[in-house]
Amino acid sequence: MIFWGRPLNLERLVRYNVARRKDPMTRTIQPPLLAWAWSLAVGDPRLEPRLAEHHAWLREHRDLDGDGLLWLIQPDESGLDASPKYDHVWGPYAQGRRGFPWLIHHNRRRGFDARRIAADGRPVVCEVLTNVMWSLSRQASGEPSTTPVLIDRLWNEATGRFLDDARNARTALSPDRVPFTWDTLAPLALPDLPEAIGRRLVEETLLSDRFWPGVPLPSVALDDPKHSDRDHYWGLRRYWRGPSWTNAAWLAWLGLRRLGYDAEAAGMAERLAAVVLREGLREYYHPRTGACMGATDFGWTALALEMAEPER
């Protein structure tokens, strides 16, 4: 997050991932999709040397095992903030819980250095969505895809899900007990995802009663105990715990089209477009009624336009 020359006030200093008040931006990462976005909106990422520098930094500082996958030090680095899939990893220090400022404090003392944090026995996570974005950006930049190693490490054949690999988690959970969150569908956006895995994700998960009846795309399965239609808990805003987000739907929609599920892709787009036309470009929507939630005039919700009229 860039502060555009405005120093943080003391209240935000406690909650923001900075080393000191005068920092021009936060010290943590966000989903590494810049090169992929550049390829869609600007041109060839290989012609911009700063993107290569960006990738080099990520490899040096976040590829903890040298296998090409990236690791996170906080839930918000994934963009999924307070998703219930992080509750067992960080416990009372998870995003949206009252102890989260202490997680920032501990990571600040370690310079937001992932290797130091892991060496101190604190949680780090090899997360699904982050590494989907990373593989897409690497491929857009002409670098080797990390999709094969992502499958080797994060695909769980028994459950038919992609699951995070958490190190030093506060509570260990078996794969069948991890909250069923939408990010297991994010790999559908990968152009080199094996067809067999893609079809299993579509037919067993996306088109199931767990997700399909909701406004595209519920952030937590409709029948999961951790699902909630609200966006506030204990007086705190806790994102990604049930409401539907357009960018999540868009990633799954890309996979539907690539795998030939044209009718299903069109149906998803029509349902989402109806909600956006009625409620406007809101940050996210009620997963059952489509009622608007969050910020207004939200940029990435305009992805619904591409879904509604992909040929344009």
Low-confidence residue ranges: none
Number of strands: 8
- The backbone outline, from C-alpha atoms, is globular
> How would you spell out the order of helices and strands?
HHHHHHEHHEEEHEEHHEEH
What is the overall pLDDT average? 95
Rg is 19 Å
Helix content: 25-40%
Q: What structural category characterises the helix and strand content?
A: mainly alpha
Count every helix, treating DSSP H or I runs of 4 or more residues as helices. 12
* Sheet with the most strands: spatial strand order: 1-4
Distance between the termini: 32 Å
Sheet having the most strands: 2 strands, antiparallel
Strand portion: 5-15%
Walk me through the topology:
Blueprint: H1 10-15, H2 34-41, H3 49-62, H4 87-90, H5 100-109, H6 114-119, E1 124-126, H7 128-140, H8 147-154, E2 155-156, E3 161-162, E4 165-167, H9 195-206, E5 232-233, E6 236-237, H10 246-258, H11 262-279, E7 284-285, E8 292-293, H12 303-308
Antiparallel strand pairs: 1-4, 2-3, 5-6, 7-8
Helix pairs in contact: 2-7, 10-11
Task: Write out key terms for the chains shown.
mainly alpha, two-stranded antiparallel sheet, 12 helices, 6% strand, globular
Notes on the structure:
With 312 residues, the chain is mainly α. Helices cover 38% and strands 6% of the residues. It has helices at residues 10-15, 34-41, 49-62, 87-90, 100-109, 114-119, 128-140, 147-154, 195-206, 246-258, 262-279, 303-308; strands at residues 124-126, 155-156, 161-162, 165-167, 232-233, 236-237, 284-285, 292-293. A two-stranded antiparallel ribbon has the order 1-4. The chain has a two-stranded antiparallel sheet with strand order 2-3. Strands 5-6 form a two-stranded antiparallel sheet. It is globular and about 50 Å long.
